[in-house]
Prior knowledge:
The chain is of the alpha/beta class. The chain has helices spanning 3-11, 18-21, 45-50, 57-68, 94-111, 121-130, 138-141, 163-168, 173-187, 192-197, and strands at residues 29-30, 36-40, 77-80, 115-119, 146-150, 153-160. It has a single domain (3-190), classed as Uracil-DNA Glycosylase, subunit E (3-Layer(aba) Sandwich), CATH 3.40.470.10. The chain binds uracil.
Amino acid sequence: MSLEDIAREIRSCRRCPLHASRTNAVPGEGNPNAKVVFVGEAPGRNEDLQGRPFVGAAGKLLTELLASIGLRREDVFITNVVKCRPPNNRDPKPEEIEACLPFLERQLRAIDPDVIVALGRHSALTLLRLAGREERSIMRIRGRVIEVELFGRKRLLMPTLHPAAALYNPRLRPLLEEDFRKLKGMLGESNQDEGLEAWF
Ligand code: URA
């Protein structure tokens, strides 16, 4: 099943109450063969209006952080744990995450990335749980490269802060920048495959 088939299912999904208040579902976008997938929490207002991930203020920062390490949005795949906007940008409820998670799992299987970057606590803890690990604190694990067994093979999970957290508290921005530099090191300066060879 292709990413576009999965996106079509997401757009017509009614598995949880968030479908009733959405303008658009936000399946995600980018390179279907990306080595790196970025997973945020849930769409906000701008994303809901446009049906695209990370297009508001947090998205602008994410795009800048990507550019700072030589990546364009279209080089990677960008998506969220939850595909529809929670009202007033509240945190997604556990049952909404559970209902939506099969879509993220199918997307990750289809893309088959080497590296998954979890943006923020919800994304990090959800992905770690998928890999059979329990964790509570994002600050304890941010910037770490965690080897996980996911969907049949070893992958690297790097939890970092959500860009919105750095907009809210500018003192966090250097930590996010540091994590992106680390990601760049992992991917290799010139050739993504060469950089990752050391891990696989
Ligand atoms: N925050 C997220 O977690 N995802 C988006 O797509 C936009 C903002």
